[in-house]
Amino acid sequence: MDSVRTVADLAEKARFASRTLSTASGAERKAALEAIAQALITRSSEILAANELDMVNAREEKMHPQMQDRLLLTAERIAGMADGARQVAALPDPLGQVLNESTLPNGLHLRQMSVPFGVIGMVYEARPNVTVDAAVILLMSGNAALLRGSSTARNSNEILVNVMRDAIASTKISPEVIQLVPSEDRATVKALLTARGKVDLVIPRGSAQLIRMVVDEATVPTIETGAGVCHVYVDEFADIDKALPILLNSKTHRPSVCNAAETLLVHKNIAPTFLPLALKALTDAGVALHGDATVQKVAEKFGVASTPATEENWCTEYGILEMNVAVVDSVDAAADHIAKYGTNHTEAIVTENQASADRFIALADCAAVMVNASTRFTDGEQMGFGAEIGISNQKLHARGPMGLAAMTTTTWIVTGNGQIRS
Amino acid sequence: MDSVRTVADLAEKARFASRTLSTASGAERKAALEAIAQALITRSSEILAANELDMVNAREEKMHPQMQDRLLLTAERIAGMADGARQVAALPDPLGQVLNESTLPNGLHLRQMSVPFGVIGMVYEARPNVTVDAAVILLMSGNAALLRGSSTARNSNEILVNVMRDAIASTKISPEVIQLVPSEDRATVKALLTARGKVDLVIPRGSAQLIRMVVDEATVPTIETGAGVCHVYVDEFADIDKALPILLNSKTHRPSVCNAAETLLVHKNIAPTFLPLALKALTDAGVALHGDATVQKVAEKFGVASTPATEENWCTEYGILEMNVAVVDSVDAAADHIAKYGTNHTEAIVTENQASADRFIALADCAAVMVNASTRFTDGEQMGFGAEIGISNQKLHARGPMGLAAMTTTTWIVTGNGQIRS
After folding, report:
1. CA dist., res. B385 & res. B394, Å (int)
2. Residues A397-418, buried b or exposed e (16+ Cβ, 10 A)?
3. What is the CATH number of domain B2-224+398-415?
4. Candidates 2.120.10.10, 3.90.1150.180, 3.90.550.10, 3.40.309.10; correct CATH number of A230-382?
5. pLDDT digit string, tens, across residues B301-343
6. Candidate from A108, A365, A400 with C-beta closest to B377
7. pTM, entire model
8. Contact assignment for B420 to A371 by CB distance below 8 Å
9. Contacts of B421 in chain A (CB under 8 A)
């Protein structure tokens, strides 16, 4: 009950303060972000000192080294956060955009205009950079931010929020638009997810367990981010000179992220030439292979190690150098496999045939289809959005990388001179 | 468990069949709607006979006359449904629209294209026309439909679905894209709301209780429709000759619908002239009044009946001829009241002052703001969308009247010639 009260109070403060954002000009919001960027640099030593407290705890609790690396702040990383804030400030203002406009026969004038959501909650793990990255995107899109990070990053998050709030206190924006939700108690997450009417949207960023919990518990609208079981389909009409680099880049460039590929699908007609090359290249790159029956035979024949792929393998987002490989009969069969095991994130086809590409696009049912390109391009920065608050793999509202525009909703503004319905 | 299995089976059939929609041309989808329209007319007598079975039960069970009227089909109403299908078929194709397009420095070509969701569930009450209206909107936007109507309309819904399925069996679209979810068992609603991964979206249409249940139970993404506690704010700079007709039309034109007004807010500076006129006009129109302290005094002075408005009154969507009235100090105070008691649906301001209008627009936080027009204009047909599957009063994905475009999501199509990330 206390957590519910705490979150409700923070949300109410944030809601009231958010009016200073919804009525601010783009220039005023940019000024707030600039102030934040400056303050991060000026107060770097304070931030590093607080982060060191978190790091001491992390080392004592023997946190996984990879997690420790995510928790760690350095002067360079702080400068990167400040730079990120300035980049967001330089983007086109997402608010006040007129998406549709018309005048009706009765003289009513209609405008559909982009406006902020209001209050947006973020639930994330022990990455203090998210505290700043999320806050600046939300502020620039006119939204108040309720930030619920991990308790292991508590000291870092507290100082970062204080620095940001102090910075915008000198601008026209109320510092109350940034609220840190206490992380000592897990119940505040639940409270945030069920603060219906008080919080307009919650975005989870983190592990599959976190996302699943959010989906199960939330009554507030949420945007699911993250999980990526991505496929590379090498069509019978593929150019092998393109297929091989795309495959290797999709799997090995950065295997821990959601747009890395987990499964290779090869058309049966190109398998005799492509499969031996692919299996060899993947193995040379250190990728452990799981194959279907056909692939197993080819692997054995060419002396490449692989184990039989299980149902669990096909569904797994490895995040490491492991990959499933299957041979399929057609574009439709590839789409069937993807429909069964994919997560609607990114699917790539390598083909020189437009009909194959079109069919794949029509059936792939995902946030991004790559035609003759690496799955790794599903990324806000790569796609030219300039900033990204996450990658949505739901179909509602936003699909794929979410930039500033995804953090807005719309209002219909209907202007008349006394019209009534008859 | 059986309901879960039943819904999963129907969703799988619908998903597979939906490929005949996602790969169909606009002309092929239009042909399916035309076939449905024709079949509805040709088979009217069958439909009326089945509806009569439902009506017999309804009369036996002494269903409320208003509900009986909603359940009743007539030759004229069936013709209206057929006409609706033809109107939807005549709208611009919502699929394949390119919403964003660019070429990146690395040569990758990006297109954000509108595509269907896939499988959409509808949960609604005893209004058989929704069975057809929803199916045709979903089909035209490329989606398979899982229709879960009320058991009291069972016979009507069964024949309508059979007629539609038979009609499209002669086209390129698979009849399996329309599935009627059994309504005998309430558990099928829960099963639909939790068929995550099998159903892409569920839209509830009906009572506040239904919507609330959907919000609480659903793990599938949903779009909340319906509840409307709408306000008319008469600003100090209002033209009284516009304010009075707008107020009366907003409240009395059709009080049972969600875009009817429930509360009148009057700026204190115009209250001395406007309030007596308004209270009298509302009373003359048969509207029962609930006032704040100031309003109570004015009502008493002018001999108009009113009771003190309670907290519950301010929150209530009456649906009948009752209205709350309050005097407020400013645009901001009006916005405060609306933020506290409103449902983010439609808010009207009557003013001749642009600054008041702009401030109200920035603070009203709703699907539609009416400036000098009746709240009754928040309506897909009135706003020129041609068809409407409901009015969203959530902020995610679609806000306000939802036409064909709201039933689509997007895919990023990224076309390269072998690009990889470095």
Report:
1. 19
2. bbbbbbbbbbbbbbbbbbbbeb
3. 3.40.605.10
4. 3.40.309.10
5. 999 999 999 999 999 999 899 999 999 999 999 999 999 999 9
6. A108
7. 0.91
8. no
9. 249, 253, 374, 376-377, 382
